[in-house]
Amino acid sequence: MANPEGIRPKPAEQQLGPVLRRRNQVQAGSTTDQRLLDSAGPTEWVHTDPWRVLRIQSEFIEGFGTLAELPPAISVFGSARTPADSPEYDAGVRIGRALVDAGFAVITGGGPGAMEAANRGAREANGISVGLGIELPFEQGLNQHVDLGLNFRYFFVRKTMFVKYSQGFVVLPGGLGTLDELFEALTLVQTQKITRFPIVLFGTDYWSGLVDWLRGTVVAQGKASEKDLYLFHVTDDVDEAIALVTKEVGK
Fold first, then answer.
1. What span, in angstroms and rounded, lies between the C-alpha atoms of 130 and 145?
2. How far is 152 from 133, CA to CA, in rounded Å?
3. Which of 1, 33, 203, 218 has the fewest CB atoms within 10 Å around its CB?
4. Contact, 172 vs 114, CB < 8 A?
5. What is the pLDDT tens value at each position of the chain, 251 positions in all?
6. DSSP 217
């Protein structure tokens, strides 16, 4: 039947939950309930961004729910490649033990090396030893000294947990992942997204080159302020590291 003059045809329209689609945005397929109940239906939807949002949401919920009742905690970062017979590993054990003695839970990335050392020190001191792992192609799983562990798919969710449930960071010598966590924390403190957040770099020989570059290049060229160099402390002494953390968080 011909369309009466002056009457435009109703555009194709599709309502998918809160989403309205018209014209060329209409998608072929069934209703939401049909897709939920049809076990023989297409499976591509599990790889779409809306589904990923639900996974991200679930990781935040699991993290918040698991860590919300932790006592004050300090995160310890460092290389997964630190040998167990090295001075750095021994320092990690002593730092983990000293943090527990000072009244903190210890949070690490849950891996081997320096992370394992800090978890080991916390466990041996009968403290709370937490590992926040990440899904990686070469991940070795949570180390044996973790008593409370979470594995994340997404780095940014994991980073949120480190910052939200830590009162400060102690950073042992490490690689790109360690530097990522360090500069994330420095940026958050510099921009005042978080306050009263001590950051201690342990190992003056290892960190001196980075500190010199920040001072001699970044600050010297006006890319950062001189006062930004006071956002962190560098030490070789375990007792001093713990004292700096304790002083700044008021414990």
1. 9
2. 6
3. 1
4. yes
5. 555 555 555 556 776 666 677 677 777 765 656 665 666 666 676 677 788 889 899 999 999 999 999 999 999 999 999 999 999 999 999 999 999 999 999 999 999 999 999 999 999 999 999 999 998 877 568 999 999 999 998 999 999 999 999 999 999 999 999 999 999 999 999 999 998 799 999 999 999 999 999 999 999 999 999 999 999 999 999 999 999 998 877 65
6. I
